[in-house]
Amino acid sequence: MARPPRIWISNEAPAPGEVVRVRTQVVHVMESGFRLDAEGEPIPEDLLTGFTATLDDALLMEWLPETAISQNPYIEFTFAARQGGTLRMIWSDTKGVVAEAERAVKVG
Amino acid sequence: MTLSVSDPDRRRLLAGGASLAGIAALGLCPAPARAQSSLAMPQPDSAEADRLAAEFADGAEPLAEGLTLDLPALGDNPAAVPVRVHVTEPITEASWCEEIILIADLNPKPLACRFRFTAATGSADVAVRVRLIQSMPIRAYARMSDGRVLMARQDITVAAGGCGL
């Protein structure tokens, strides 16, 4: 992990049921596989393939990026804070986990 | 001696300077002369996008309601176009969004990404940045837990080149 992902959370201590917004960005080259290098050879594809956000054991959302996603992928999502816990986010590509991050969310 | 435009020495100096500047400009900008640097080709039509949409809907008739697609009408940076997709109808225990797909019709690979949610999410509102090879329609489909499929569509114009695909 070269650089930790940037994370913004609208409220880390939301009221029960409040919709919490999370914005994150991670460093990743997102090589499309279409580009050619100086010798005219295609540069191998290197894409972020998965992102998951969980709150304790509950899966909140899963994102499956493809070629069209920009370099240094940005993802923003929301969830309803029904209970507190650890918001855990994992970014992965074909070589394995790219980055992991955790934030405590306290409800009430 | 006073300098004037008609002074022959000054004329020569000016001309020399101009040609030097011209050479420097050529040397600094070799990019246009370089050969094609990407194999990316846009889709000729929306056929592949339609196929993806039909596969996602799995027989259900998409309803043009309850789902909103926010993106600029003009994407000034085609390498990072902000796109937000959100289900505007209430998300409840009985009716929540299972999956959203985002399709960029004419991109070399039209499927931009998928988002999957669970009953625990309690919301369906996501935003990403996509790269687009040219101006095209963008669409999003959402499958709800009760089997309905919602769709939204918007056209976007992007500046030529600089796609980064």
From TrEMBL, chain A:
SUPFAM superfamilies: E set domains
Source domain of life: Bacteria
Pfam families cross-referenced by the UniProt entry: SoxZ (PF08770)
Residue ranges occupied by any Sulphur oxidation protein SoxZ domain in the UniProt entry: 12-102
InterPro entries named in the record: Ig-like_fold (IPR013783), Ig_E-set (IPR014756), SoxZ_dom (IPR014880)
Coiled coil regions, renumbered to chain: none
Record's protein name: Sulfur-oxidizing protein SoxZ
Organism: Paracoccus chinensis
UniProtKB/TrEMBL annotation, chain B:
Gene3D superfamilies tied to this protein: SoxY domain
Alphabetical list of Pfam families matching this protein: SoxY (PF13501)
Residue span(s) of domain Ig-like SoxY: 64-163
InterPro entries according to UniProt: SoxY, SoxY_sf, Sulphur_oxidation_SoxY, TAT_signal
Protein name: Sulfur-oxidizing protein SoxY
Organism per entry: Paracoccus chinensis
